[in-house]
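Posting for a labmate who doesn't have an account.
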Amino acid sequence: MAAITFRQFIQPDILTTIAPERLRSLLSPHQEYLVKRGLVFPEAPKAAISCTRLSAILAEPDDKVPSEMVDALYFISAMTNTNAVDDLMAAAKSAHPGMEFNMDASDADIIVQIWIKDPDLVTTRHAESLVNIPKAFEYFRSRELKPDTFSMPDQATLNQMEVAMNHWFERNRRGRNCRIITADHGNKISFLIRHGMPMLRRRRIRNDKSETILYRPEVFDVAFYDRSHNELGIRALGTKGEKNLYRETIGYYLFDNYHYFKERQKITLNPLEIDGVHSLVCSDINGLEQVTLTAINNRLDDGCDGYLSHRAKDVFLSLQKQKKSMPPASTLTMAVFSMKLAGIEKPRTLTIQPPNRVTYQRDDESIVADEFLDKRGFIDQSEG
């Protein structure tokens, strides 16, 4: 089976942490391509490049996108966490004794500096120490028949959506700086939603003195419309109110109905009970070599709201050796799978929880994982 190389565009919240001059140094070898795609390189060396525009370009790469640039941005994004950067700095100093770092630089700045000097070191350390943070999506299915045709929202529509969202964000202490970036991925249309969070007051050390700063954190939520299933997936870092905002706004401006997407049953664990180990077959899914069930949670009918968890390297094999059967699907509340992806040594974790929650370790696994869930019947396609 051919290996699949996963490369996801870097999000603007990572790009904005790179000092403008470092970002320019990183992108300069690819300036001709980026300018043709509409990115402006300011004349002033330290002037900021539009990270929002750059992210939009990378969200829809064409067949001429420089692979070196994509790799650089991917690894910078993947390595931007404090533990990984500390280890990376130590490795860089060991490999290049004369290399010096600004101790006030951001994580992304450090990684860019090392990447420009020694990209192989970054890729090696990434493989050894990448810390994966689970990404949980909630799904909302429409009660309506899926449309025969669907057009991407134009900029005027996106502007109206931003205004509508800004009203909610402002009323809920999040400011009025919402921006929406869309990308067409075939069956899925993604919406990258930038907005502020409530103001935070923090103490920091500057010039050896303690001071107070007040700032509004910036976050990026993700929603996508799945044309084939006529449903909306949402990953939001904030409250239930933000999820409602996204599904109502997208429903109204794309389908003229605030209530187009309603929370419905999407995930079912019936295949585990009905098909047993055969529910894990993945030979018909490109990029997926093996799926193993590693954990289940089972709600007990004991009148005490009891739960029983079963965890093993292979739950089906463990149950077989204990001469036990899979609990009824009606009482299962969670299932965890280990997925072996082609070309990737370390298995990835996939968690599903009825009625509509799916958690991936990384966003770029979702296409393969969703195909597996769909083909094996874990995605409930029944109406009503």
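Reply:
Got it, the structure tokens are right above this. Residues 155-171 form the longest helix (17 residues).
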